[in-house]
Amino acid sequence: MPTRTHTVITAAAGAGVIAVGLTGCFAIGGGGSGPVGFDGVQSATIQLESVGTFVSPEEGGYEAAGRGSGFLITPDGLAVTNNHVVTGAGTIKVWRGGDTTKELSAKVLGSSECLDLAVVQLEGSGYPFLDWRKGDIETALDVYAAGFPLGDPTFTETKGIVSKAVTGGETPWASIDSVIEHDARIRGGNSGGPLVDSNGALVGVNYAGNDALDYNYAIHRDAVLDVIGDLVDGEDVLSLGINGEALVGEDGTGLGIWVNSVKSGSVADEAGVEPGDLLTTMEGVSLGVNGTLTEYCDVLRTHGQDATLSVELYRPSEDAYYRGQFNGDPLTAVPVVGSGSSAEPSADTVTVTDDSGAITFEVPASWAQTDGAPVTDGNGTTWQSASASPDLAGFQGSWATPGATVYATRGAPVSPDAAADLVATGAAEEGCTSTGREPFDDGFHTGVWEIFTGCGGSATYVVVGATDYAGTYTTIVAAQGISDADLEGIDQVLATFYASY
Questions:
Q1: What is the CA radius of gyration of the chain?
Q2: Is 317 a catalytic residue?
Q3: Mean pLDDT, to the nearest integer, of 225-233?
Q4: Which of 258, 355, 414, 439 is buried most deeply by CB count within 10 Å?
Q5: pLDDT tens-digit profile of 24-49?
Q6: If DSSP codes are grouped into helix, strand and coil, which group holds residue 388?
Q7: DSSP secondary structure string for all residues of 438-473
Q8: 341 is catalytic
Q9: Could you report the per-residue pLDDT of 388-441, keeping only the tens digit for each?
């Protein structure tokens, strides 16, 4: 899998230890009355250092100085780089052409996490700048990758050819339709730097590489030109304001989108997303399934970044799930069962639906027996229903087997309390001890919930009665477990259940 060609120099607080990781690249173009030619590419290429606090899944929170490359596209200081080089940074420093004696400041105008692009504005004017190639970009075209690899201020330029003129760009941190594959060697620190032809005209923006296979990738000129106007105007494109990447489990199964940093004032920031969060679903779609940003960006392409989008996330720092909306209701912590249960998402889960496809929730993969048939209560109300357990007969007939059932019906034929009573009354009659009925609010639903302990001697029984925020449907959750692992499974149900009406 390609890796980001962006270098992060990490300074652990109080440790004085420097570790070099990924690095990005950026380029600036010619001055005078027109763009520079091939001999002026260096003068129009810049190195950026983005300083801020980032959270990685391996190292946790740290203050980092991430270095990348970029290039100028106008004499008044407009420059292009990668989103992952600059988004979430507290400050951005720039050096041009490898000259470290003159430090420039820069401001991010617009960005896109899906396209891994950003436009920054440098202070001053009269800069050399690069122009875009006018002709076709074809296989075997001679190209040159320029930038500052490994965070070194020494300018480098490598030669190669275009091996694929157009290919897909699905990576852990981007989802791009038009990408150029080439063999002009790039390294960490080249992210955001220019890929130019023999005349010094821009072919693309370097953003990823695979050292083992010597594959190098650049965002196609046409994909950049499609959005550059919006970015220059300060409009983000296919963006909620995160610097993130898909996270996978040890078995390679996708867990979600890890948030390294968040752009202040962005949609994600206003919703309450924090660095170190793991986005698990948007609009009911599981994220990062194949270890890429594909699903995340497909949701944005389908609905638009300004739409109200449901989101679920896991926050490791609190060991808690949150649910809410982008451009809507802010994130709310999902209630969990007991203090000893971990809500951490597992790759070993499956999605359960009822026969109509309205109800959806996630359970441990071991709860492999399912039933999606509707049921009718004693008052004649029909409920869509989905159950899952390792042994449905044992779950439905005893306290010795874990499992869960989620019910839903259109509108609000009964109150949340009355809905909970439909599945809670029997628990009290069978010797279970209630911890008391409490308000329930998970960011999507509001109502009541109740936990019963000592059922059958050792089982925990959880009941929820609620309506969605819009009052579209009433829902009931009834789940039971014996072990800590079972309680984690119940937490998974509570964090993911919903109905589509």
A1: 26
A2: no
A3: 97
A4: 258
A5: 333 333 344 689 999 999 999 999 99
A6: strand
A7: EEEE-SSEEEEEEEEEEETTTEEEEEEEEEETTSSE
A8: no
A9: 999 999 999 999 999 999 999 999 999 999 999 999 988 877 889 999 999 999
How distant, in Å, are the alpha carbons of 149, 312, 492 from that of 408? 55, 20, 18
* pLDDT-derived band at 337, boundaries 50, 70, 90: confident
Q: Cα 342 to the chain's mean position, in Å?
A: 22
Helices (H) and strands (E) in the chain, counts: 7, 35
Kindly state the tokens that stand for 463.
């009941």
The sign of the CA dihedral 118, 120, 125, 128 is negative
- Residue type for position 5: T
Q: Is 84 a catalytic residue?
A: yes
Q: Which of 6, 43, 69, 84 is catalytic?
A: 84
Q: What's the chain's length in residues?
A: 501
Q: Three-class SS of residue 404? A: strand
Instruction: Select which of 43, 111, 116, 266 is catalytic.
Output: 116
Q: In which residue are the tokens 């690899």 written? A: 149
> Catalytic: which of 43, 112, 191, 385?
191
DSSP 136-150: ---TT-EEEEEE-GG
Residue in 18, 78, 23 with CA at minimum distance from that of residue 49: 23
**2 vs 300, higher pLDDT:** 300
Question: What are residue 373's phi and psi, to 5 degrees?
Answer: -75, 145
